């Protein structure tokens, strides 16, 4: 297989800028986020990449990032699938709170556990393990068949939904994936073997 899977975390959102837990809340991109999405599209275009299908979440910041990238790629009408399965991890009672406020309320140690453990959810929300349990079946049912058919696939989603995918693609443990930082608006380009394992991975940095 010489086709590619490209994963892109959405550009900076208004709530990222304010250091808020976002989850399933639906803020738009900040001005910086728009510029990051434009740059991501330009980087992909510079690689000569064209796509056959795209996937994104049910949230505005990921959808707008995808739209901007496709405009930069000259593919504004690309077939696109939107699904809640690719939404960000649900932060439950933390959603909308400033991260410093959350630390004051629950303590630095507890908030760190919620943010950086694999299987401990915040109150009313999802752990990364929970997030993976909805992302990975969607990948197997909808995204992998496109790749297996030889198509180039672009996914614009969120830090934690993409972590779930990366954990599978790179065969990482829960501890390994929670330590992986994903920058906003930076495309990760994978080439996959016929069995779905990664044969090549690179990040397109500005």
Characterize the structure shown:
The two termini are 27 Å apart. This protein is globular. It has one domain (4-203): 3-Layer(aba) Sandwich (Rossmann fold). Helix 2 packs across helix 3 (60-73). The protein is 43% helix and 14% strand. It has a six-stranded mixed sheet. It is an alpha/beta fold and 206 residues long.
How many strand units? 6
Low-confidence stretches are none
- Count of helix runs: 8
CATH superfamily: Phosphoglycerate mutase-like
For this structure, the quaternary state is: single chain
Query: Order of strands across the widest beta sheet?
Result: 3-2-4-1-5-6
Shape: globular
Level-2 CATH architecture: 3-Layer(aba) Sandwich
Ends: how far apart?
Answer: 27 Å
Based on CA atoms alone, the radius of gyration comes out at: 16 Å
Helical content stands at 40-55%
Backbone structural class: alpha/beta
Estimate the strand proportion: 5-15%
Mean pLDDT: 96
Number of domains: 1
Order of helices and strands: EHHEHEHHHEHHEE
The CATH topology label is Rossmann fold
